[in-house]
Design goal:
With 237 residues, the protein is α+β, with helices and mostly antiparallel strands. It is 35% helix and 36% strand. This is DUF3592 domain-containing protein.
């Protein structure tokens, strides 16, 4: 085993993060969680405004209709809508389109009018199906929270992996190791380098183009995390 601690060390780059297995799934889940959570908060905000400053009136049903879409399993899904118009307390006419549940649609379709609740200071915030904003807000909010939790777990794991690699190259022992083999990875001409040092410590590098890897039997430099004892090939940085 050769101690190479006095030699120059590579500088950690951004690929330390992006090459972690959980990084990109974590980012995708983070964005999805924020999107679902935002939709949930939007609905809950409207529900709060309606419960605190809502005014009830009778709206005219101008048009009731349904749309269909083909599901992946081959079945059909239906969405139900109602176009309504109403006047606020000042007598100004407003119109709005609401998506409603199948039950509410079936119950209200034959009527000429439907009860509507709107915010007096902002009639654009309105609801014809009682509790729909609260239900949607709760569902989307819980779903967004669960997705965000999963994202934070993945990103937290990736962060711990990066911290180990940074400690290794910044403060860990540098050793010589022997390339034991290349393991083919994926279908894009990449491979993972396997190495082992004189103490018997072994490691596997992240995928790289196979043509860029030092051949089996050659000597490479690895850095050892002083806390976890794991080693990382210098080419990983």
């Amino acid at each position: 085993m050769t101690d190479l601690s006095s030699g120059p060390r590579p500088l950690p780059s951004a690929r330390l993060y992006v090459e972690r297995p959980g990084f990109w799934p974590g980012v995708v889940l983070l964005l999805a969680g924020l999107a679902f959570g935002s939709v949930g908060l939007w609905h809950l905000y409207h529900d709060l405004r309606l419960s605190r400053g809502g005014v009830t009136t009778l709206a005219q049903i101008d048009h009731a209709y349904s749309t269909t879409a083909r599901r992946r399993d081959g079945g059909l899904s239906y969405r139900h809508y109602m176009d309504v118009s109403f006047r606020d307390e000042a007598g100004q006419l407003h119109s709005a389109v609401f998506q409603v549940s199948q039950g509410f649609y079936a119950e209200s379709r034959g009527r000429s009018g439907v009860e509507l609740r709107y915010v007096a200071t902002n009639p654009a915030i309105a609801e014809i199906e009682p509790g729909r904003n609260r239900r949607f807000g709760s569902v989307f909010g819980l779903l967004g929270g669960a997705i965000l939790w999963a994202a934070l777990l993945l990103l937290g794991h990736a962060r711990r992996q990066v911290s180990s690699r940074r400690r290794a190259v910044e403060a860990g022992e540098a050793r010589s190791a022997t390339v034991s083999q290349h393991q083919t990875w994926g279908k894009k001409g990449k491979a993972r380098l396997h190495w082992q040092d004189g103490t018997g410590l072994a490691g596997i590098a992240v995928p790289r183009p196979a043509a860029d890897l030092p051949p089996p039997g050659s000597t490479v430099t690895v850095y050892i995390d002083p806390l976890q004892g794991r080693g990382y090939w210098s080419g990983d940085y």
